Structures are given as structure tokens and as C-alpha cells.
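input
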Amino acid sequence: MSKKDKNHKDFGHMKKDSGNGEDTEQMTEFKKPEKKAAEDLPGEEIKRELEVEELEEEIEILRKELENYKKTEEEHLDRIKRLQADYDNYRKRTLKEHLEHIKRANKDLIEKLLPVIDNFEIALEAGKKLKKEDDDFYRGIKMIYENLIELLRKENVKVIDPKGEQFNPEVCEAAVTESIEGFHEGDILEVIRKGYMIDNFLIRPAVVKVCKKK
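output
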């Protein structure tokens, strides 16, 4: 083999080696990013874990805020219900007091009117005894009396005229007692003065004569 051919062979061998070196270097350069990505992976995972923890904390904060909001809302609703109940009770109580005030005012007015009605009844009874029913004056008195009784009736005033009934101490007052044959103990023999009541308010008890036991 000539020196020239030997040099050429060596040169080719060197070129081949040179080529292998470049391939190795290229392979090394290609693998380096993979190694770097592998080194950065734990850092990325930590970052993600921190982000997840932050999100979980935010979710927990929002959950607590929602619970507090619900609790506050329930407290407000409960307070509104209690205020509504208080208002309803106040309205009912005020209305009841107002009606009772009206009844008391009516009662006072009727009490002042009753003596006038008593006088009309006395006059009418005297007219009957004197047989003056056909007299114009008697008729005039009777008409006024009937108008007054009708006025009381419209105001829910009830006349207590218990003749023939059993004595009731809640609405009657016994002025006279007498034993009479044919009557039972407690029977009302006579109404001396009529009583009056408005709704459940007793304005004046009836004054009566009662049969007593022998």
C-alpha cells in the first residue's frame, strides 16, 4: 500500500470518527432538554400543589362565608317573623282596646239615658191604669219610648225583662222576696225595674221580686 493510500485511509477513518463524534454530541445535545425537564418536574408539581391548596383555602373561605350568609339570612327571617307576630298581636290588642273603649263610651251614654226610659215606662204604665191608651198624648209618649228602645236595639243593647224566669244573680238583683203558692223558689214574680246589657257588658241589673221558700 502506498503512503498516499494509507494517508487517505487514515483520513477517512478520522472523518468517520469525526462523524461519530458529531453524532454523539448531537445525541448529547438532544438528551439535555429531557434531563432538564425531568429536573424541573418536582418544582412544577410543588407549584401545582400550592395552587390546589390555595384553591382549597378559597373554597373553604367561600363555604364559611356561605354558611354565615345562610345563618344571617335565617336570623333575619326569624326576626321578621317575630316582628310580624308582634305587629299582629299589637294590632289585635289595639283593635280590642278600641272596641272596648267604644263599648264603655256607649255604656256610659246608655246609663245616662236609662232613667229617661224608666220615666217613659212609668208614664205609660200610669196611662194604662187611667185607660188613656187612646189619648194623643199617651200615643206620643209611647212613640218616643219605642223609638228609644229601637235605638238601643241597633246599638246591640239587650233589655233584661226576666218575669216568669228563674232568678239569675249575674243579671238580676233581688229587691223583694215573697212566698206565694203555685210558684217555685227562685221564680221571678215581678220586674220592678228592667235591666240592660250591651254585648257582654252588664249596664244595669234587673231589679226583681223573687219567690222564696216557705
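quick obs: The two ends are 177 Å apart (CA to CA).
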